[in-house]
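From the thread on structure requests for the teaching lab: each student submitted one protein with a one-line request. Submission from student K.M.:

"Model Major facilitator superfamily (MFS) profile domain-containing protein from Mantoniella antarctica, tokens only."
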Amino acid sequence: GSGGRTLSVVSGAGVQTASYTVGFIVLGCMVGLIGPTLPSLRANLDVTFERLGVVFIARFLGSITGSVAGGWLLEHVPGSHVPYATSVLVASLGCLLIPTANTLPAILLYFFTMDSGLGVIICQGNTLCTWANAANPAPAINIISGGFGVGAFSAPIIVYFMREGGGGILGAYWLVSALSVAMGVCFLAVDAPTRPPPSALGEPQMEITEAVSK
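Reply posted by the TA:
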């Protein structure tokens, strides 16, 4: 199904699925940057790895916050990619600032910001992709999940070439942030799907819905 076209100019399940796949590629890149750059981030802060481990608590809290916000926005801002695009910009801001942090509280705030945006992307991306392909969502969900894998695989390669080229981890984070911003803006040109009626769901989904209702 399609939503309102206030800002959108293209529509269709194929375009929507492709858009969410690109979104998940960027998401995978952001998450994939963390591992290979963690030693450099620790050096920037001049703390032990044990102390730096608290960033994963900030990531967890950000992800939960984003997921809750993403679900709420699906209900209250239906048929629009504005919340999705905005969350991409929020995640990009956090990603942009992470390599600049020189204190532990600062990097905790930046990770929380990035993962809050990513939480919305994950929640809304999966749900909207399911709505766009209501009759048979499984292949589309597999495709966007594959996009995440591509992004996570690409992130260490980006870090390597940025280090070799003199850009360092700052260049890697900023490149991914720039790509993310461009992707977020492009989302505004894509028509957003709306929640399909039960009659539009494929048989497996209808069986699950009926089982839950009982």
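TA comment: Residues 13-45 form the longest helix (33 residues). Helices lie at 13-45, 49-52, 55-76, 82-97, 104-132, 138-165, 168-187, 203-213.
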